[in-house]
Amino acid sequence: MSVNPEIFELRLKVEKKHLDEQKHVNNVQYVQWVQDVAQAHWENRAPKIYQEQYFWVVVKHEISYKQQAFLGEEISLQTYVGETSHVKSVRHVIIKNAETEKVLVEAKTTWALLEQKTQKPAKISDDLKRVFEQ
């Protein structure tokens, strides 16, 4: 992978549906946001032909919860693709409070590329790697 990966960002406002009984964002919600920003990055950057030919599945999640987020706060979801091997890539996600820039969550997820037709692992080509570079 390039030493200069593209950083993709989504922003959202914390809504009541994101909260747990302690009135802060539920840890499971952060996992969903990690998946959501990864999907949005893929859909935003990958040409339609790649999207029709391939899809990604999570192999592993590593998440560090640093701070809490609360109702009404604006959240920044930032992601980039790091090291890539034969059929897997590692995606990094940083979730921050958009106003204070305080890191709420850091995640590192390993994804495997699969072919739509066969549902079997597919080799990540150099062209596909370049989709996520600046």
How are the strands of the largest sheet arranged? 1-3-4-5-2
Rg from C-alpha positions? 16 Å
Helix percent band: 10-25%
CATH topology: Thiol Ester Dehydrase, Chain A
What's the total helix number? 3
> What is the CATH architecture descriptor?
Roll
The total count of strands amounts to: 5
Strand content: 35-45%
Which class of secondary structure composition applies to the elements? Answer: alpha+beta
Fourth-tier CATH superfamily name: Hotdog Thioesterase
Any idea how many domains?
A: 1
As residue ranges, the low-confidence spans are: none
Overall average residue pLDDT: 94
Order of helices and strands: EHHEEEEH
General shape: elongated
Q: Describe the main β-sheet briefly.
A: 5 strands, antiparallel
What is the CATH class designation?
Answer: Alpha Beta
State the end-to-end distance.
11 Å
Q: Concise description?
A:
The chain has helices at residues 27-45, 48-53, 126-130, and strands at 8-13, 54-65, 74-84, 88-97, 103-115. It has 134 residues and is of the alpha+beta class.
Structure overview:
With 134 residues, the protein is an alpha+beta fold. The protein is 22% helix and 39% strand. The chain has a single domain (8-130), classed as Hotdog Thioesterase (Thiol Ester Dehydrase, Chain A). A hairpin with a 5-residue loop joins strand 4 (88-97) and strand 5 (103-115). It has a five-stranded antiparallel beta sheet with strand order 1-3-4-5-2. The termini are close together.
SSE inventory with pairings:
Blueprint: E1 8-13, H1 27-45, H2 48-53, E2 54-65, E3 74-84, E4 88-97, E5 103-115, H3 126-130
Antiparallel strand pairs: 1-3, 2-5, 3-4, 4-5
